[in-house]
């Protein structure tokens, strides 16, 4: 049984099939990439999985449970985490506060606990901070010196790292990364490649949308290709690299597939 099983997912936007009967699996402990030209439906599929948008049909099974139609906060509680193509952080909060916000599903402290502050609330906070520090260490010296900085003062690449840190912090079973290297230079991109490997080695399962083909071909155990909402190919990188239908889909103006 795969960790994530997507069956016959459909989504229409005013007559346009953003997703058309899409089936795919993500196996435990693997790095699976989702690629395709602009407008292929990649983000829409992530939205359908994470409850950001309701699909018109189909099912999403996660860890043996039907999570179709669940709200985003319920999906997160099941052990799924994601980052967004357009960074979504609390820009006026610090790096640490953003990652602590990602951990709130793991803590029990409600409004009464926050006001009364019994000892277990302080203990939970301490544990959450310790967990956040563990996660910052995965990013070497990129985030550690900046944990008390406001997010909108950080570079774009560091904001992306904070978003990934926030996703990892609750120890999800599956991490969905939507273009984690967008706007990063080759050096920064390599840092994300190293991080993805590190996360996989730590036991995380990763489903990633990427346009940078060198990255995709390097890190993926398997690649799923969408075009016009339809899955047109699926297989290991060496097979996808040779696939004529995929090459055709990427030709023309719509694509911004990148080599590095
Ligand atoms: P990109 O690589 O450019 O991010 P993508 O593969 O992630 O593209 P989606 O963003 O999933 O593609 O979009 C798939 C199709 O659905 C596109 O034609 C897009 O215009 C359309 N679409 C997505 N969201 C909406 C929406 N909220 N309302 C109307 N159409 C939408």
Helix and strand topology:
Layout (H helix, E strand, L loop, with lengths): L3 E10 L2 E11 L4 E5 L6 H9 L6 E6 L2 E2 L5 H6 L2 E3 L12 H8 L8 H6 L2 H19 L18 H13 L5 E5 L7 H16 L3 E5 L3 H7 L2 E6 L2 E6 L1 H5 L2 H7 L10
Parallel strand pairs: 3-8, 3-9, 6-7, 7-8
Antiparallel strand pairs: 1-2, 1-4, 4-5, 9-10
Helix pairs in contact: 3-6
The structure holds adenosine-5'-triphosphate.
Adenosine-5'-triphosphate binds next to strand 2 and helix 1.
Description of the structure:
It is a single chain. With 260 residues, the chain is of the alpha/beta class. It folds into 2 domains: 1-79 and 174-260, P-loop containing nucleotide triphosphate hydrolases (Rossmann fold, 3-Layer(aba) Sandwich), CATH 3.40.50.300; 86-171, 3-Layer(aba) Sandwich (Rossmann fold). It contains 10 helices and 10 strands. It has a 6-stranded mixed β-sheet with strand order 6-7-8-3-9-10, with helices on both faces. A hairpin with a 2-residue loop joins strand 9 and strand 10 (230-235). Helix 3 packs parallel to helix 6 (156-168). The longest helix has 19 residues, at 119-137. It starts with a strand and ends in a 10-residue tail after the last helix. Bound molecules: adenosine-5'-triphosphate.
């Amino acid at each position: 049984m795969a960790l994530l099983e997507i069956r016959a997912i459909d989504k229409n936007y005013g007559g346009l099939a953003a997703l058309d009967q899409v089936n795919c699996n993500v196996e435990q402990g693997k790095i699976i990439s989702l690629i395709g030209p602009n407008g292929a439906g990649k983000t829409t599929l992530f939205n359908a999985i994470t409850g950001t948008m309701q699909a018109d049909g189909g099912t999403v099974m996660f860890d043996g449970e039907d999570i179709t139609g669940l709200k985003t906060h319920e999906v997160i509680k099941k052990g799924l985490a994601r980052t967004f193509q357009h960074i979504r952080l609390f820009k006026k909060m610090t790096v640490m506060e953003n990652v602590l916000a990602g951990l709130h599903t793991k803590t029990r402290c409600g409004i009464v606990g926050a006001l009364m502050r019994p000892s277990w609330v302080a203990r939970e906070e301490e544990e959450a901070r310790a967990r956040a520090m563990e996660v910052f260490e995965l990013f070497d010296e990129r985030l550690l010196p900046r944990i008390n900085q406001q997010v909108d003062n950080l570079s774009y690449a560091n904001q992306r790292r904070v978003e990934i840190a926030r996703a990892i912090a609750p120890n999800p079973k599956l991490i969905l990364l939507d273009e984690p290297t967008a706007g990063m230079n080759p050096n920064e991109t390599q840092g994300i490649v190293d991080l993805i490997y590190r996360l996989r080695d730590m036991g995380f399962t990763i489903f990633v949308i990427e346009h940078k083909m060198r990255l995709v071909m390097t890190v993926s155990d398997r690649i799923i290709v969408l075009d016009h909402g339809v899955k047109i190919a699926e297989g290991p990188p060496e097979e996808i690299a040779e696939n004529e239908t995929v090459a055709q889909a990427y030709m023309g103006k719509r694509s911004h597939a990148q080599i590095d």
